[in-house]
């Protein structure tokens, strides 16, 4: 009866798409796998906050106070002073009236997009948005429409032909997770206003790392990347948050985050404010990686050009550097060769990225040293000649 599973796994193997996990015995800038210590160049711990002493200390206090789990969904008995304190902090950090939490970023997208849309509406998304947004659209009864990646003319064309829908919800990643390029947020919000549409922006890889001009009505984020913890959030008008607490099924029907995860994220937000040097170090490292990887003349995503912020200063770029190799097996091979040389860089293959665009997704953090980034770049130069 389960032959289809053998067949499915065999097909994946044949296509070079079979996946497996690697078990880490330590985590951080250095990660130990299979008894080997590696420099980790694929975590989303952009500011090193998952291991910050203050973050660990505050999580430990909450753990001792409230135990391992929340013991209930938010509306039943799972909402603690740590959840409440974190939502207040997030709302202030994102400059919005209110915020609420979800068990993960994935569930924040799922619950919010499905709660806000009906069969009378349309959801308009960038082609390269994250899987959680795509899955939310699949679950929603609204009509899904896709515009070309970062293409404002394509977005406007969709908006022009969508007047018949009751609501139009535009959803975009801020930092595109597999390409590392940035949304044209200010322009998207302007177009949305022109066509009476609502904008929702996913700040998963941006929170604590990248700021863009533009004020979307709905801010989605996650605690699981630069904040080093776990959990998703939405920030916006108080009435939006009230509505989601009444309608978003992934909020209502799932156990609340462990209080310790909230305490950790709260501490991480405080560290971002009190230790601006971390973000500065990250920006310096991104700058260095830009120079070194750019010099390799590899197929680094084309849209990583610096942008100007509202104040006119040059925008820092994102810490995500894709090196598109194309072929699945070759990408796996280079990832293994890097492993053998002491670097952990996961290979990303379809369906996470489009067919023929398998890649190494290198992520830079504030914790990497100049020498480590230089070493990675020179290994890449040897393994993937220009
Ligand atoms: C753009 C984007 N949105 C949402 C998510 C989901 O967030 P989480 O890992 O907290 O579920 C991710 C993370 O993988 C992401 O990259």
UniProtKB/TrEMBL annotation:
Organism of origin: candidate division WOR-1 bacterium RIFOXYC12_FULL_54_18
Cofactor: pyridoxal 5'-phosphate
tRNA processing among keywords: no
Residue span(s) of domain Aminotransferase class I/classII large: 37-379
Keyword tags: Pyridoxal phosphate, Transferase
InterPro entries referenced in this protein's UniProt entry, alphabetically: Aminotrans_II_pyridoxalP_BS, Aminotransferase_I/II_large, AON_synthase_class-II, PyrdxlP-dep_Trfase, PyrdxlP-dep_Trfase_major, PyrdxlP-dep_Trfase_small
Superkingdom of the source species: Bacteria
Record-linked PANTHER family: CLASS II AMINOTRANSFERASE/8-AMINO-7-OXONONANOATE SYNTHASE
GO MF assignments: pyridoxal phosphate binding; transferase activity
Keyword hit for Transferase: yes
Assigned protein family: Belongs to the class-II pyridoxal-phosphate-dependent aminotransferase family.
UniProt protein name: Aminotransferase class I/classII large domain-containing protein
């Amino acid at each position: 009866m389960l032959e289809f599973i053998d067949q499915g796994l065999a097909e994946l193997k044949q296509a070079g798409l079979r996946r497996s996990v690697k078990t880490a015995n330590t985590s951080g800038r250095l990660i130990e796998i299979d008894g080997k210590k590696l420099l980790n160049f694929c975590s989303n711990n952009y500011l090193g906050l998952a291991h910050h002493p203050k973050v660990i200390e505050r999580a430990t206090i909450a753990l001792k106070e409230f135990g391992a789990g929340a013991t209930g969904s938010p509306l039943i008995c799972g909402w603690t002073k740590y959840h409440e304190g974190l939502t207040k902090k997030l709302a202030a950090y994102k400059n919005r009236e209110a915020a609420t939490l979800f068990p993960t970023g994935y569930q924040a997208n799922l619950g919010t997009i499905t709660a806000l849309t009906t069969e009378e509406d349309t959801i308009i998304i960038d082609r390269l948005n994250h899987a959680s947004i795509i899955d939310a659209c699949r679950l929603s009864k609204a009509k899904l429409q896709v515009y070309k990646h970062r293409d404002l003319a394509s977005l406007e064309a969709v908006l022009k032909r969508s007047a018949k829908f009751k609501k139009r919800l535009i959803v975009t990643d801020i930092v595109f997770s597999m390409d590392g390029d940035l949304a044209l947020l200010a322009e998207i919000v302007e177009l949305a206003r022109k066509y009476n549409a609502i904008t929702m922006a996913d700040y998963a890889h941006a929170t604590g790392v990248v700021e863009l001009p533009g004020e979307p009505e709905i801010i989605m984020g996650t605690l699981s990347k630069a904040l080093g913890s776990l959990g998703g959030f939405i920030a916006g008008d108080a009435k939006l948050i009230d509505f989601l607490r009444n309608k978003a099924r992934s909020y209502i029907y799932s156990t609340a985050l462990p209080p310790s995860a909230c305490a950790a994220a709260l501490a991480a937000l405080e560290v971002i404010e009190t230790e601006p040097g971390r973000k500065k170090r990250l920006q310096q490292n991104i700058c260095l990686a830009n120079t070194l990887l750019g010099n390799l003349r590899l197929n680094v995503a084309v849209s990583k050009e610096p942008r100007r912020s509202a104040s006119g200063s040059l925008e820092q770029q994102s810490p995500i550097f894709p090196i598109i190799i194309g072929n699945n097996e070759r990408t796996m091979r280079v990832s293994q060769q890097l492993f053998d040389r002491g670097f952990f860089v996961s290979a990303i293959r379809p369906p996470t990225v489009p067919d023929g665009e398998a890649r190494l997704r290198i992520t830079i953090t504030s914790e990497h040293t100049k020498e480590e980034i230089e070493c990675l770049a020179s290994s890449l130069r040897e393994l993937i000649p220009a």
